[in-house]
Amino acid sequence: MTISFSGLVSGLDTSSWVDALVSVKQQKVTTFQNDLTGYQTKKATLNDTRSVVSSLRTSIEKLTDAKFGGTFDLFARNSAVSSNTDVFSATVTSDAKRQSYDIQVQQLATFTKAVSKESASSIADDSTELKNLGVTNGTFTAYVNGVKNVINFADGETIGSLKAKLGEFGIDLNIDEGGVLRFSAQNAENTIHIGATTDTSNFTSLVGLERQEDGSYASTNSVYKATIASLLTAEDAGFNEQITEGTFTIGDATFTIGEGTTLSSLISQINSNEKAQAYAFWDDATGKLSITSTKEGAAYINIEAGTSNFTDVMGLTNSAWDEDGNLLSTRMYTDAQTLGKNALFTINGTNMVSTSNTVTSDISRMEGVTLTLNRVNTEEDGTTTLNVTSDNSGLVDAVKNFVSAYNSCISKIDEVTAQGADFHGESSLTSLKSTLRTFANSSNTSNGGVYKLLSELGISVASADSNNISTDTSALSFDEDKFLQALEENPESVKSMLAGDNGILNMMENTVEQSLKSVNGFFDVKTSNLDSNIKKIQEKITKQNSSITTYKAQLEKKFQAMENMIAQMQQNYQSFLTQ
User: Fold this and answer.
1) Strand pairing report for 288-296 and 303-305
2) How far apart are CA 207 and CA 219, in angstroms?
3) In sequence order, which residues have a C-beta less than 8 Å from that of residue 413 and are 6 or more positions away?
4) Predicted confidence (pLDDT) per residue in 160-175, tens digit
5) End-to-end Cα spacing for the chain
6) Cβ distance 14 to 6 under 8 Å?
7) pLDDT digits (tens, 9 = 90+) for 528-570
8) Contacting residues for 99 by C-beta, under 8 A, at least 6 apart
9) pTM, rounded to two decimals
10) Which one, of 127, 130, 146, lies nearest residue 138 by Cα?
């Protein structure tokens, strides 16, 4: 850091002289900076104008993209209205014919369900822990001749330990061959009652205890050894037969049972595999596995044994293996499956059948229409119909957006080309505005349709008259009712007029596209020129600032030399006086 003390010897304010001389050159930098600000402001105005013109192009494309067909064609969109959505609903594409259909539903499609023919689990015995039956820890009450006896279930409680505790109160507990729990008094003269409102365990509700005519109690649900948490291949898993490791198939999915596979994890695998086309459920109350198809209709669930005997143990297949565990033969128990139903319905009196409640056009023969059957018709429903009509909401919105974007574009060009504005006299912009206005007002005889003017479609330019000379004759207005009427009377002519190859909007789009074209379009060319000017000005400012810095240093050096010379002269004078 350099510190200078102005005129310490001469007494002159040399710093002010330096600043004054430097400021003269600084004026040139200020001029450059003003020029730079002007170019940057023009660029910002140009970008704003480009954005407005680009928005106009986007709004036009929403309509002219009809040439690509499908979802791009706003003129071809349809709507489907069901007279009773409780019975059926529908969706349509642009391919649907606009007409009315009488639809009656006689039967909904249902799902096929396979259930183990017999219980796959062994009956619970004295060694079975209550928690494996789903019993929660807590209190359980038994009354003998009105005397209350409370048992507290804790971890490790088994049917055998419960039997022993009840025996101390004079109550016998047994499990019959069907897995039903039976409670009875050891002494026929005694009366027992099981359960109290104060019990905190779910035991009585879980097994469904009911008092019998002879005063004993029996469970409505059987109790089994196997549970959802059972390790499938374990010897004590609780199934009627030990399950082997290996594979089996449901639907088009093959599953593998390994050493650590539990019933719960296997069911999760089945339910998360789309190729299985089914979901599985283990019923603790019956000891059975159920598999329900995820596809409606009268079709069997494909279930095949593999190298594991799982589907045999579950009572869904009957198979044979050789000594090495290789599958020799397998057949599916079709009688273990309750076949789903097909949907039955009529369209205009013609009987139809569908394996699904979602009826596609290949089944219904209604091109572009997909039905969803929700319930069967009742007498109270009367006639239920589907009306396919044109959906003009998207088209109307697109025209409104175009009119708004057009007006914004014309207004913006007027603003930036006005007297004193950034682009006053810019011929490319004024030409763009003039061409757009010409298209909006002129007759188009080349589209081949009935309509020739936008005003015939409700898209018109206001006209000044003696009553209102201030009317903006550049802005478009939109009469929705007139547009919809024209669309109803001659939709093809409306489409041709707006979006046909020789349509007005197509011509507008081409004009706008030219100005937005990359590299050689007006906006890119103008931006490139402005960027070039901005860069040149910035370089001039940098160069001038560097020159000023050098000039200032030179001035300070010269004045410092002058101060040194004066100091030397004063020193010589003082030396002369003292001689």
Assistant:
1) unpaired
2) 5
3) 49, 429, 430, 432, 433
4) 999 999 999 999 999 9
5) 41
6) yes
7) 898 888 888 888 878 877 877 877 777 777 777 777 787 777 7
8) 388
9) 0.68
10) 130
